[in-house]
Amino acid sequence: MPHIRLTSLLLLLIITVSPGTRAQGFLHVSGKQILNGKGQNVLLRGVGLGGWMLQEGYLLQVNGPGMQHTIKARIADLIGEDSTNAFYNAWLANHTRRIDIDSMKAWGFNSVRLPMHFNLYTLPVDKEPEPGKQTWLDKGFRITDSLLAWCKANQMYLILDLHAAPGGQGNDLNISDRDASKPSLWENEANRQKTIALWKKLAERYANDPFIGGYDILNEPNWGFEDLANDKNGLNEKGNQPLKQLMRDITKAIREADKNHLIIIEGNGWGNNYNGILPTWDNNMVLSFHKYWNFNTSESIKHILETRDKYNVPVWLGETGENSNVWFTEAVQLLEANNIGWAWWPLKKLGNNNPMQVHSNKDYEKVLAFWSNRGPRPTAAEAYNGMMQLANALKLENTTIKRDVLDALFRQPYSKTTIPFKANVIKTGAIVKAVDYDLGRNGVAYFDKDTADYHISNGARGGNQGRTYRNDGVDIAADPTTDSYFVNHTEAGEWLQYTLNVVKAGHYQLKLNCNPASEDAKLSFLVNKNGARKITVPKAAGWQSLEIKDIELKKGPNSLRLYIDAGDLTLGDMQFTEVK
Question: In this protein, which residues make up the domain named Carbohydrate binding module family (predicted)?
């Protein structure tokens, strides 16, 4: 998708918010519901700001160890400590700004989840000048204050999420930036006391602000308390007593300062194992679970629905995403039908399946190549330039806004209609790219047989094999030398639909550029639901221009469907010429 520039973005996406925002009161629990101060049910539709305070390697396309502290050390090895600090200061300044939150509100989000790294708020235990004391750092609190102000301006809830706790809360090291050579959260009392103290400090600061939606007190704990050797991530944990005790201690500390806000708890095993933890110990508590890469069926959330009913407590899907648009639409339909709010993950990254795509640069690619033993060590100047360009690429105006992802989250769950992906204005010489088919559900705007990544349920990682340009099931390949994109890996029975905005009614000739990968390739065209016209693709190898003559188009919107009747093809573009 082409870059959306700031001027266009401001015109298309940014809403006007009245200066005097009015809170709807603190979110609170009533049975299995989350209500606002007016007693209205609140369905949280949010997104997590993953990668801002806490980087994970995959968000930066880093191979090998993906903990932030190791990434930082590798950067420092290339450019030195001072330049590394300059990069991280730019990263924090650029990743999330007022324009990001304004845009999120315009797109349909009503909440933000902030994944916090403790080291922006307080020193690590082993760096404290006086053991047992807490040194508070201003940077994290200032960043949080600014984010909260932007959320207030848009009447959005901010949920604070401790993503990286002192010492690290699990054996999935990247998630919490854990240094396995040091005692974990569970192996060191000082780390636990610092975690409790941090939450009390946050509660004291934000106790009276109704735009704080809640406190997500410990993200994705994953630790085998009973059998660490064989169950390192706590998936089979039966008791979870150390986790429960810490969460109770944090709750007590919060409630000493703050009686108002939701406290959100997550189970072991990445947020889903609640064995031994329930019932809840606070009357304003919400359970969070996380869901990735499995089927979007009632069975897939049966465990959390049964838990909600058994303990009469609300549930919230605190993290989900990292999949195709088909999966996104299915998930939103499933969740909202069961009155479960959600927070997608993440807002932006170097990748295709999120609301914003951050773009790499040639010098940063040299850094990645060196780190993965695919290229020579870059010079310090190259590495510094690559890192600072990457920090600048975080700014919303330098990203690609993924309209297809947003459409899958907010429109498609409740609409079977299609809308144009591109204007596709048709007059003599007009070119429509095959990748610019309509926005809409699979089976409505297009049909593809392999649409999503369900590998937790069936072992298959489906969806767009090229993982580029769009995030539907349709396979798309990129040609980086020409910045071109093609539909490929087609199968019999698949099809693509295009809305054409025709300037002048008449008869047109169409030339389709394609490259058959099999000798039995056959196509059909259907215009405005009139009789389909079959096209046999010549068996010659290489790119070909197929002519389809005498296509009648009316003025204004027209619908064209391209069917794959047989064979594997690569589809480039369609050129229209009016026949006089």
Answer: 471-570
pLDDT for 531 equals 87
Helices (H) and strands (E) in the chain, counts: 15, 25
482-509: pLDDT as tens digits: 889 999 999 999 999 999 999 999 999 9
Q: Give all domains of the chain, ordered by start, each with its CATH number.
A: 43-407 (3.20.20.80), 416-579 (2.60.120.260)
Query: Letter for the amino acid at 542?
Result: G
Quick one: tokens of 471?
Answer: 């995030």
- 397 vs 349: CA distance, rounded Å: 14
Burial class of residue 50, CB neighbours in 10 A (0-12, 13-18, 19+):
buried
Q: How far apart are CA 37 and CA 22, in angstroms?
A: 11
How far apart CA 138 and CA 120 sit, in angstroms, is 8
**For the chain, what is the largest distance between any 2 Cα atoms, rounded to a whole number of angstroms?**
87
pLDDT digits (tens, 9 = 90+) for 37-46: 999 999 999 9
The DSSP symbol for 37 reads: T
Cα separation, 204 vs 144, in Å, equals: 14
545 burial type by CB count under 10 A (0-12 exposed, 13-18 middle, 19+ buried): exposed
DSSP 3-state percent helix, strand, coil across the chain (nearest 5): 30, 25, 45
Q: pLDDT tens, 43-81?
A: 999 999 999 999 999 999 999 899 999 999 999 999 999
Contact 371, 64 (CB under 8 A): yes
Task: Give the tens place of pLDDT for each residue, 215-255.
Answer: 999 999 999 999 999 999 999 999 999 999 999 999 999 99
Looking at the DSSP assignment, which residues form a beta bridge with residue 400?
A: 357
- Cβ contacts of residue 531 below 8 Å, gap of 6+? none
**pLDDT score of 306 more than 80:** yes
- CA-CA distance, 476 to 392, in Å (whole number)? 27
Q: What is the separation, in whole angstroms, between the first and last Cα of the chain?
A: 34
Q: For residue 23, what pLDDT is reported?
A: 59
Q: How far is CA 491 from the centre of its chain?
A: 29
DSSP 192: H
Q: Tell me: pLDDT of 408 over 60.
A: yes
Three-state DSSP class for 449?
coil
Lowest mean pLDDT among 331-345, 443-457, 532-546: 532-546
Q: Which residues contact 318 (CB under 8 A, 6 or more apart)?
A: 48, 113, 161, 216, 219, 264, 266, 271, 288, 289, 290, 343
Q: Which residues pair with 513 in a beta bridge?
A: 545
**How high is the pLDDT of residue 20?**
38
pLDDT for 8 equals 40
| Distance (Å) of CA 553 to CA 128, 503, 527, 529, 532 | 74, 10, 8, 12, 14
Q: Among residues 77, 79, 63, 52, which one has the least CA distance to residue 385?
A: 79
* Owner of token pair 């200066």: 19
What region does 155 belong to: left with phi over 0, alpha with psi -120 to 50, or beta?
left
